[in-house]
């Protein structure tokens, strides 16, 4: 299993001082976190895209290009690129450039986005939400395969034998589909044969299995090899040596994150110790606790899902960077080696080894699953 980190670079108010972080410091910390992740051997680092004043990054490709200069091995991805409101040609050019700068380490996680701000900002009609994504995803995939393209769609000017440059080092830029919890998005990713990045905020682990089953079943029905139907689980996380101390320390920061950064807008959230214990307890997808608890949870998810990648979002809620750094080191040095050893040889390779879907296609609870409603 590949293991890594992702960040949304939120500018949360410090729950203790009431001071909001500035964008310069946040981006600096993001680059330092990626550099440290590379040094401790993690495989992937993702940067999110938002177009609000309470987030520092609106252009992941620029930040990833900066990270490419301070890292050597780690793969660099968006998490996610809001493709519905973007020009696929420019997206491809930006990430192709990151690929060149990084020596072939760029990826894209494309999604529809959970916030609405990009649509009016870039003159895109929100009523075309799904059609925009389908058409632009189709164009983005074609751009990655050819140096010249002739193309016509409904939401962008036509291309006539257009030269698409620069070309990446990789033969094709890897494109993942970012999925929140909607069955339709999972089916789309599977039908296209694209890898799926599933955002999981918490709730019972068993609640995400139907989505993964739908994805694989749709992919196999469309004729895609199971080996190409890769799954990434992306979750909030924080870890330390002592589970109870971790929860007691982290609760205020997580509470602040839920109050300020979630799609419902800014509203005060109060979590009692018992509520937070329940949210982070055994069998839940919220990875907050000791390193051993994180190992146990990731392996429990692996038993259910046989996924290929796990990405943790650690730097949330204005968590001090020294604490973020400690957690990254624990993740890379204590958790990752165990997970790699345990998952190295027993991944399923045939359809018979994957249990059939157990869901009728109904969506899981939005509060439990969706970070990026793709």
Structural commentary:
It comes from Tunturiibacter psychrotolerans. GO terms for molecular function: monooxygenase activity; oxidoreductase activity, acting on paired donors, with incorporation or reduction of molecular oxygen. Residues 342-374 are annotated as: Disordered. Residues 363-374 have a biased composition (Acidic residues). Residues 1-303 form the Luciferase-like domain. This protein has 374 residues and is of the alpha/beta class. The protein has a single domain, classed as TIM Barrel. It is built from 12 helices and 12 strands. The protein has helices at residues 23-39, 60-68, 88-102, 118-121, 129-143, 183-192, 209-221, 243-260, 273-279, 291-305, 321-343, 366-369; strands at residues 2-7, 44-47, 75-78, 81-82, 106-111, 148-151, 159-163, 175-179, 196-200, 231-240, 287-290, 309-313. An 8-stranded parallel barrel has the order 1-2-3-5-8-9-10-12, surrounded by 8 helices. A two-stranded antiparallel sheet has the order 6-7. A hairpin with a 7-residue loop joins strand 6 and strand 7 (159-163). It is globular. The two termini are 23 Å apart.
Q: What is the β-strand count?
A: 12
CATH superfamily: Luciferase-like domain
Shape: globular
Largest sheet: 8 strands, parallel, barrel
- Contiguous uncertain segments of 5+ residues: 347-374
Q: Cα-atom Rg, whole angstroms?
A: 20 Å
Which series of helices and strands comes N to C? EHEHEEHEHHEEEHEHEHHEHEHH
Helix share bin? 40-55%
Entry keywords:
12 strands; alpha/beta; TIM Barrel; globular; eight-stranded parallel β-barrel
